[in-house]
Amino acid sequence: MRTEKTLSFQTEALIRQTIRTTLHNKMKSLDEAPGSEIIRENNNREQESQSETSHNKSPLLADPWKPCRRSRATVKEWLLKLRCCLGAVCGIEWYGYAALGVFTAILSFLMDLSVTKLLTAHRGLYMKLEGNSLLQFFCWTLYPACLCAVASSFSHNICPFSTGSGIPEVRTMLAGFKMPHYLSLTNMSTKFLGLICTLAAGSTVFLGKVGPFVHLSTIIGAYLSNLCNLIQANNKEKAGGEMLVVAAAVGVASCFGAPITGVLFSVEVMCSHFALRHYYPCFFSAACGALTFRLFSMWSGDEESPQALFKTNFPAAVPFYSLEILLFAFLGLLCGAVSCCYLACHRWMLQFTKTNPMFNKMLTTEKGLYSGIVAFLLASLTFPHSFGQYMASKHTMKQLLTSLLDSRQWSSQSHNASLHLGPEALLEWSSSGSPVFLPLAVFLLMKMWMLVLACTLPLPAGYFMPVFVYGAALGRFLGEGVAYMYVSSTGLTSGLQWASINPGGYALAGAAAFSGAVTHTLSPALLAVELTGQFSHAVPVLIATLLANALARSGHRPSFYDALSIGKRLPYLPSLKKACPRLPSTPVGQVLAAILVKLQKAAGPVEVKLAVNTSTDSQIPVVDSHESQIILGFVLRAELLMFLRHCESEALEKHLDEVCCIHPTSVLLSPHNTVQEAHSILRLVGAQTLFVADRGRLLGLITWPEMKRILEDLSKEI
Amino acid sequence: MRTEKTLSFQTEALIRQTIRTTLHNKMKSLDEAPGSEIIRENNNREQESQSETSHNKSPLLADPWKPCRRSRATVKEWLLKLRCCLGAVCGIEWYGYAALGVFTAILSFLMDLSVTKLLTAHRGLYMKLEGNSLLQFFCWTLYPACLCAVASSFSHNICPFSTGSGIPEVRTMLAGFKMPHYLSLTNMSTKFLGLICTLAAGSTVFLGKVGPFVHLSTIIGAYLSNLCNLIQANNKEKAGGEMLVVAAAVGVASCFGAPITGVLFSVEVMCSHFALRHYYPCFFSAACGALTFRLFSMWSGDEESPQALFKTNFPAAVPFYSLEILLFAFLGLLCGAVSCCYLACHRWMLQFTKTNPMFNKMLTTEKGLYSGIVAFLLASLTFPHSFGQYMASKHTMKQLLTSLLDSRQWSSQSHNASLHLGPEALLEWSSSGSPVFLPLAVFLLMKMWMLVLACTLPLPAGYFMPVFVYGAALGRFLGEGVAYMYVSSTGLTSGLQWASINPGGYALAGAAAFSGAVTHTLSPALLAVELTGQFSHAVPVLIATLLANALARSGHRPSFYDALSIGKRLPYLPSLKKACPRLPSTPVGQVLAAILVKLQKAAGPVEVKLAVNTSTDSQIPVVDSHESQIILGFVLRAELLMFLRHCESEALEKHLDEVCCIHPTSVLLSPHNTVQEAHSILRLVGAQTLFVADRGRLLGLITWPEMKRILEDLSKEI
């Protein structure tokens, strides 16, 4: 009996010791927490050196009750040695960034490869049926319809979060909100396979891959950051947010092999402030991704060195005359105006699919069927033997862009039979023998509403590339017009002179300007340069993009992604701001939920027990007394449990402040602070909880879930 | 008597009415102040529309007691109409951004023009003296010596703040500190003229123009923002900070005609967070600047279209083999290592000039003499008839860079007489008939310490371009070596094959990597691409720059600008952090000054009078009572004056809270917040004053001057 008691006493002492050390560690980490995001950089190196000396704390060695202990131990030892070696060169997270770039690029390359195979198969089948128009029609239409139906039902059944572009969700996560559904492995595989089907449907459905790739790389980033945290074991909460920002850059970079655009995109996608400590990791990871993508593309092709994706041959000596800059500016304004029109159609369509009962029913219950029907409709319109001959519909997206960026003038070639310079590109665009303006005009008119319709398809798809190609066609149209006018005015006699008006340059500027205007970003300007590998048109492209953006942003119109965000009711502040400009300046005090649990300084065990049972928060606020409500700080839940145990074991009636440490609050908000300020400060100080107090009296708490609730509530009023 | 009294009464009533309305307006603007930086975006459009309807409030019409009223009124009317027209298109500040770009570009162009003239004059004189070595020596040495002496004494006597690069000061201002001395017009003119002298001293002194140009554009930006504020008249405090961020981008963009680099530089130069609302203005202004600069360069030269500054002719088909990427990575590491060495020498030199009594005395009293002597020394070492023949010293900086970026291989040309492809470039580098490796090695060894010495010169000068050229030489050295080895191993027989190793590509990568490593930035990678107008080497250049940066940043070594910041004791947090890693994590409570003036809620006129006489702050904190010290908010100084007047006139003993409105504080800090957090929050919320309270009790205030004092005090302990 006595030994039993001693044993139990010893056990209890042991447990209490364990709890105390855990508590101590937790408190230590919490003391660091408020400023963690900022101080962390300093501590990095110290923590690294600590991690090298503290192998035994690693979770790799955590559970020793498993089979094959000896071999496991050997493997572990080797892993630990590897970790030491890796850690000696640089922090583990850098390997994570590199791996993120490489993995995303490999995924991107694999996707391109399989899509090309599927497209070739379709084309081969279509060619074999030459002569039988009906069979050709079915081949042309049913193949994309089936693929879209498969993509749609597959993604709907396995992971409904995988449809759409993913960029609105990524933006919301980068703004600080947790959305674990969007970062699951199921989502990744569904999105990957669904996207292959979508892209294999080809230029009839006319959808791209950028957005989903940003999403895919974000998922990879989230998993890699977990892995890095597991290996590092010390700074648990570190790499999460950082890796997501980096992943956004990598997604774009490894889609096109364009590292600098990737970083600029990441800067633009961040909510309101881009933290400079992400800058270097973004560049590093994007460079890894772009290099891997280009090397793979090189090895699969016949090139001798990594090349740009859409290499152009613009004349380098005189890329454009200085007066042409005015035309580029006009093109920018034109693109801005057309983008406003496109965005208005898109918003109307979004609204229509929600309010129209038939559409709504189809889109909620029969997604596969809907996708199949829409794809069939689109494909039958682009059938090459009917209307499609005026729309260069045999071209894939890549071929379309290449042909549009061609530096030679089409119009002169079509009415000057002696100049057959680019037969392939031109044949497709003027197969009917008509001048090139007609197919371009038909393409522009038809693709506008077809694209709006395609955007309603519930499958994983990107909406950037189609817009880019559309813009290129718009630019080409203007460019061909200018070149034609120039030729007419100077006459064909002046031989070489007119060759220097390059319609390809207009196509490039148009692509950047239109896609920039639709997404309200400037990075397409750099993307246009990086995609073609030619810097000669950088300045006019930038000017066109700036002007198009200016027009598209005027009047606080929402961008394409804003419209999606608002439609999905995502708690993304800049989008909500466009739907309701007064929203971010709502005072916090108006929307704050009543505070459920708070303790007074002199709280006894009964009050503490009640608080612990009622609340699940990790930080519980402490006030001076329930009358004065003056906020003193907060206590940790773990400490309260400790306090209860202490009181129970010693059967003493102690007050809270005699036993527990009351941690001071880091930053106090006033109820007059706006929602936007609260959001910014929450992100900046990296704290999990902000306290709102008025003249010292506690009013409420703001946590990330609370912020999400506030934004969702506010957006319901729109 | 009675009328007099009535009159005086009327006057008093009028005055009180005026005070009340002023006060009301002030209070209104103050209510907006705390979140102003964030909310402002929303209000912009509304304010614009207000400004259109409220002409009469404009300061342009403020004082009607001046001569020529009629003509003035007409001019004013026209100006107001112009303002209406301009404001109808977009906000006035956009014209400011455009003007900023254009003005800076014109300045940059004018400077290039005058420097070219001065350099040509020097060269002409030197050529005329051909045959007389002694006279040539004096011409070669005294010209730069005199120019440097003039630049030095000129800038010392007129505006001592104009010496040096200016980038450390600009960074400090962008971090939020006011430094009006550095933004005066005197400073601008002194810097401009001094810089012309420095640049005209040529490649013997080996200094550049980027840094001072960033400073110059910041000054122009500050003035333009004042002008915009004057015209807008409504949102007084608006454009200040914004225009400075934009100006940093414009400085770089209009120096090289490289808009995207400019924006990336601006992102990198920001203290810790880049606000996205600056992104679009930066691009817009940088594009205006770059376009103007290129157009002016075009018009002054014979080109037909705006071209890149250092146009290269790298082969586009196979720019490099994929295995060469490893060599580029090695080059990056080499550049990183050399940059560490260079930075160590530079820091030692900075320390030496401070501690050595002779240097110290020279640099404080005889700046002109010191500059002259050093320039004479540097020039005599580079005299072409002696040591200079091994250093290509006849080349200007521009020619040096052009020759280094040449895509043809020098080494093969020097020992293969039949291949005289680039006589001019090569002649200068191997005039002595020796192989090209000797002059390159001599150049690298000599320029290292010459550059360190030149950095001590007390005149307006940039330190980026020399480093860029030095890096190009380093890259060229490796590139020539690789090309030579490749030729040796494959033999000269395989004709065309070896031509594809392009030493110019290595020079480009080296330039970007070395300058990036010295300044701890990544934008030089993009600058290298934008300067040459060729995108083919973008990926290897980026990789080299990343690796060089990684090596240079390891071990928390300060960058070039950090060393200058620390030397000048500027309150720039990221630099101070490198000198003393614990500094930013110092709790605010430790360094807070005692609070001098606070009022209690129930303060009477006597206490208020005392407070008003003691303090000059615009916001005076109010506590519950002097015993409890619970903070309630603050009152405005203007309101206190009103309160005193009220009490005096009505001879009543009232309490503060009965008359004045106590404004709630926006964000409360705790004394446990670190200095870095306080700094970030101060910037983020755009408030002028932050209150520090512990458990509701007021401890102190943090304002920008207070923050400056704290940082300066802390940096004294280093």
UniProtKB/TrEMBL annotation, chains A, B:
Protein name from the UniProt record: Chloride channel protein
Source organism superkingdom: Eukaryota
Species the sequence originates in: Champsocephalus esox (pike icefish)
Localisation per UniProt entry: Membrane
Lineage: Eukaryota, Metazoa, Chordata, Craniata, Vertebrata
GO CC term, one of those recorded: plasma membrane
Membrane topology: Multi-pass membrane protein
Coiled-coil intervals: none
GO molecular function, one term: voltage-gated chloride channel activity
